[in-house]
Prior knowledge:
- By secondary structure, this protein is mainly alpha-helical.
- The chain has 17 helices and no strands.
- The protein is flat.
Amino acid sequence: MTIESPPLAEAAKIAPPKKKKNRLRLHVRRALHSWQLYVLLAPAVVYVVIFKYWPMYGAQIAFRDYNPALGFAGSPWVGLEHFVRFVTSFQFERLIVNTLTVNSLGLLIAFPVPIILALVVNQLQSERFKKFTQTVLYSPSFISVVVVVGMIFLLFSPRSGIVNNAIVAFGGEPVFFMGSPEWFRPLYIGSDIWQTAGFSMIVYLAALTAIDPSLHEAARVDGANKWQRIRHIDIPGIMPVITILFILAIGNLFNLGFEKVLLMQTDLNLPTSEVIQTYVYKIGLQQAQFSYSAAIGLFNSLINLVLLLTFNWVAKRAGQSTLW
C-alpha cells in the first residue's frame, strides 16, 4: 500500500513554520550574549525617551484651550482652532517670509562655503600650515553665541564701531546697522558663516580622507591638474556627505537659531528679524498663550518634516545617498 502525500497547502496547515519563533529566540540569545553593550546603551535610550519622546505627550495642548489648573487631559478640546488663528493672523505672512528668507539665503550662501574651504585646505602641501589653517577656521565654533552677538554690536556700533569709523574715515556717514531692518539678514548670515563654516569643513575633510589616494596618483599620471582632480575625484567622493547634509539642512529650513536672532533683535529691525521661533517665545512665555504657541511650534515642525521627507524622496529617486 502506498501512502499519498497531502497537497502543499494542507501540509502547510498540518506543520506550520516556526520561523517567527526561531527569529525571536535568536534575537533574545544575541541580546543576552551582548548584554554589556545594551547596558552601555541604556542611559542614552533613557535620556532620549524622557527628554525627547515623553514631552511629545504635551503637544496635545495645541489642540486644547490649555489651563494649567486643569492639566493636559482636563483642558477643553478645541481642535484646529489655534492653527486656524495663526494662519489667518496678520503676523503669519511676515513670520513665514522672514524665516524662509533668512534660512534660504543662508542655505544658498553658507552651505557651499565649508565645501570650498575643505577642498582648498585639502590641497595644501605643508602639513603644518594645513593644521594651522584648520585650527584658525575651526576656532570660532567654540565662541558662545552671546559673545559673537556682543562682538557684532561692538564692531558695528554707530559711534565707536570699527566699521563705522572706517566708513567715516573714507568720507561716508555712519550707519546704524543693528537698527536697520535691511542689515539684519547680511549680519546674521555673515556672522553665521564665520562661526560655523569651520566646523562643517571638518566633516568634509574627514570625507576627503576616505578617498583612495591611488585615484589622484592615476590622475597625475594622466596629466590631470588640481582643478580637474577636484572636479572629477574629490567632489564625487564627498557627494554622499554633501547630499545627506543638504537634506538635513532642508529639514531645518523653518528652524532658525533662536538665541542668536533674539539677541540681535531690536525694536527697529523687527520687520525682518521677527521669525517663528522668537514669536513663539514671546507669545508662549511672555504672554502665557501656551496652546497658541504650541500650535505654532507644531505647525513649524510639521512643515520641516514634510520638507525632509520630500527631499529625501527626491534624492532617492535621483540615485543619491539618503537618510533612509
